[in-house]
Amino acid sequence: MEVEKYLPQIAEDLGIDLKRLIESYGKKNVQLVKDFDIPYLRFKKEVHNVEEGTVVFLGERIAYARGFPKIRRAMLLGEVLKKHFKDKFQVEEKLDGYNIRTIFLNDLVCITRKGLVCSYTTQHVKKILGTNLFFKENPDLMLCGEVIGLQNPYQTKSYPEAKDFGYFVFDIKDRRTGKSVPTDEKNSLMARYDIPSVKNFGVFTAQEAGMLLELVRTIGENKREGVVIKSQSMDKQVKYTANQSTNNDLRYAFKFFFDYGQPFMFRRLVREAFQAYELGLSKKELEEEAGELGKSILIPMVETIKRIAQGEEMTEDFEIAVPDVDFGKAFIEHLKHIGVKATIEKVSEGRNETIIKVKRHYPITNDKIKAYLKGEFCSE
């Protein structure tokens, strides 16, 4: 495919220096993906202020889906609100799942945070949205949402409202510019088209930081993640998570502690410290928090070592619901393409769908622990 002929138009539309775009394509920081009905360019890295994960579909008419930028995190909530949010802001729930942008080309298309079309997510989101009326009347917009539930390969977290699979929208953007519609307009669009939304806790001011801290504490006690704070113009967004959510992240990561890098773990420990400080925990409360944190770290590590010592392999098991076995096999290949080592463990044929049990493998953790159990030296 002659990608070069598209590059001048793409550079103009996205405001990129053409020479920079050509260089990025040559270095494969902008990668051509051909295993979709419409070939597309995927921005594997940020290029001249165009976000990582941006996708450009090279059909008869070029179509864009700008990447979703990372949302900054507050460490001390009260100080961040005082410094950055002078006016009222909207507070929404932050769900613990994976980020999906949905656009309409010839049909619905779901795109992961890293800029890959995901056929598995697409087939499920189609069922949830039910109609394409929103896209027919707003063709230049895209929905940005969180997928949660146990039947997915990226982040298996169940919620009462979506045990197996759910899609909840938290942002609506112009797909070419990446600019978000203001919160009031977004709320109106969500209601008008009956689009499933993350929970909206309402409008707050910086003076209500204490109330927000209590809200986040309650969210954590209910085994949920946290909040995202959004200026009404959507030019500022900040996330803040409950300490219980951080503990859950650590408990999961330390099952596969050689596969998850030290920065992943260290960042979460720092979050715990700042939140404990801001909450002004008593000595007794701090000791209780420290105990829970220690359990989240040490217990899963020891359990992993024991299981591998007994000859087991530490894997993460999950299920996916697909139309047929061939679709499932193709999806496993998609996982391999994004660096996830997975194999099919079991197939159950149902009347309307096929359930495939999948094993996700963590070779670094398994191999290193086996080596240490045999007396090998630690290289660190």
Could you list some keywords that capture this structure?
four-stranded antiparallel beta sheet; 16 strands; Methane Monooxygenase Hydroxylase, Chain G, domain 1; 38% helix; D-amino Acid Aminotransferase, Chain A, domain 1; Nuclear Transport Factor 2, Chain: A; alpha+beta; 380 residues
Quick overview of this protein structure:
It contains 12 helices and 16 strands. With 380 residues, the chain is an alpha+beta fold.
Explain this structure.
- With 380 residues, the protein is of the alpha+beta class.
- The chain has four domains: 3-65, Nuclear Transport Factor 2, Chain: A (Roll), CATH 3.10.450.740; 72-241, D-amino Acid Aminotransferase, Chain A, domain 1; 244-309, Methane Monooxygenase Hydroxylase, Chain G, domain 1; 315-361.
- Helices cover 38% and strands 24% of the residues.
- It contains twelve helices and 16 strands.
- The protein has helices at residues 7-14, 18-26, 77-84, 119-129, 133-137, 183-192, 209-221, 243-253, 262-279, 283-309, 325-337, 363-373; strands at residues 30-33, 40-43, 55-58, 62-65, 72-73, 89-94, 98-104, 108-112, 141-148, 166-174, 200-204, 226-231, 237-241, 315-322, 342-349, 354-361.
- A hairpin with a 6-residue loop joins strand 1 (30-33) and strand 2.
- It is globular.
